[in-house]
């Protein structure tokens, strides 16, 4: 044995370097173990996938505002330069409000999922415990990751890393984080702005738009207030009989959309969809998938038969084909309405008629009414359509869903820190003028190449933030609850 060499440990510097590389490497590049059995998907896993794809579309939307001119936001065939990205359904990839609306419905559904299930099963104590836990943890869940990421942005702003000229003629010129003379003043300004954003009892729901360290977080106050409204509504209607509870949910949803409270309409609609889901499941039995799928038809329509699918005149095989056709048609219809343009809908082919039906309470913001309805239609359809759900339960959509909140938190700063430099580089490579121009082929090539390099880096950073900020925030809120909750019954 004397001639056999002894294995040596890696040098300390190399071990730390390997560890650092592992930390920085996004999880989609980590080698997968064949010994690990994949966890079965949760019945509501499609929610995560839909949320993830919506988050990616939000990134594409804000990126498109940098590399494309303002006419991109118009409806298709409403000017002399129609664009492929303006087409219905295609435009969803670069339409932010549509994705945000879907976000809000998903939040209402996801936050209501467990309480709605327990309410349908009349598990009183478990229901109250679930709602109380959600209320307690929601604030930390939303704002602690923002505190971490915006603090880093404030530090980077102090060192003037955001001081880069925007792309000429871009659709929207985003404001940059402020730069103050001293680091103390920078931190003071950040603390003041973050305190305003994270004020849990502020009545100023538009305060998120004034958070200059990350203005795309205008949605967060809506998210927090909408969450609290969902929890309050669940508690208020919990003791009502199931059919009356559903009726009251529908009434408050109709009131919200008619009165112009589109954001609350979205959250409450998510609650309503979850309530209907478990109501049908309890009434008809979870072992009957047809009771939870489209089409929602029956011999006699009642709240008890809502969600059942019964037609004695259709053969089983033809019935299955018919059901799938209805599910796909409903899905495409929801996507078409979700593509309602931000402007020029009054003259856009396919949307001119419904434009005239917009309630007067929405004024010039007619798109908020129709896109909100479309977002609810979409989530309701996917919930009832097994043939559609695989689009959102595949591993790519699930991965995006896992890092969706982190994507939302990091992508704006990445546009300034990285994206504009990339598009400038490719403009030089292609010989294009550095100006957003929908009529320039060379600029289009530059934008496509820049996107190919921008998105993976942004997703990699979001992956890192998800593992070391977002997950830690969730675990901290759970830990904090266990330390302060009363154990007495």
From TrEMBL:
InterPro entries: Acyl_transf_3_dom, Acyltransferase_3. It comes from Colletotrichum graminicola (strain M1.001 / M2 / FGSC 10212). PANTHER family: ACETYLTRANSFERASE, PUTATIVE (AFU_ORTHOLOGUE AFUA_4G08520)-RELATED. It comes from the Eukaryota. The chain crosses the membrane at residues 89-111, 139-159, 246-264, 367-384, 405-429, 441-462. The keyword Acyltransferase applies. GO terms for molecular function: acyltransferase activity, transferring groups other than amino-acyl groups. This is Acyltransferase. Keywords: Acyltransferase, Membrane, Transferase, Transmembrane, Transmembrane helix.
